[in-house]
Specification:
Elements (H helix, E strand, L loop, with lengths): L1 H6 L2 H25 L5 H30 L4 H31 L4
Helix pairs in contact: 2-3, 3-4
Length: 108
C-alpha cells in the first residue's frame, strides 16, 4: 500500500511484491543449507536486506522510467537506467559491511 502511494504504478508494486518473498525464500534456503538458525541477528540481517531490496528496486525503477519518458526503447532504457544507478546500489551495501560488524563488538 505504501509503495503504491509512492510509485503510483501497479506494475512496479507487483515487481517489488514478487521480489521480496522470492528473496526471503532464497535467503531461508541458504540459511537452512548452511546450517544456520533463525535468531535475532539473522532476522535483523533479513530485515536490512529486504529494506535494501525495496530501496534499490525503487531507485532502478525510477531511473528506467525517466529514460522511458525521454523516448528511449525499453531495452535501452533498462540498460542505461541500471548503468546510471549501479554505483549507488553497490555503495550502500559496501558501507553497511564496513559499519555493521563494528556493532557486533560493542557491548551495552
Amino acid at each position: 500500500m505504501v509503495l503504491f502511494l509512492f510509485l503510483r504504478e501497479p506494475r512496479a508494486v507487483a515487481v517489488v511484491a514478487i521480489a521480496v518473498p522470492v528473496s526471503l525464500l532464497a535467503a531461508g534456503a541458504m540459511l537452512y543449507l548452511g546450517g544456520w538458525t533463525l535468531n535475532l541477528i539473522t532476522l535483523s540481517g533479513l530485515a536490512i536486506g529486504v529494506g535494501l531490496l525495496v530501496d534499490n528496486s525503487i531507485v532502478v525503477y525510477e531511473a528506467v522510467q525517466r529514460r522511458l519518458e525521454r523516448g528511449l526503447a525499453p531495452e535501452t532504457a533498462a540498460i542505461e537506467g541500471i548503468n546510471k544507478t549501479i554505483r549507488a546500489i553497490l555503495t550502500v551495501p559496501a558501507t553497511r559491511h564496513r559499519v555493521l560488524p563494528v556493532h557486533a563488538f560493542v557491548t551495552t
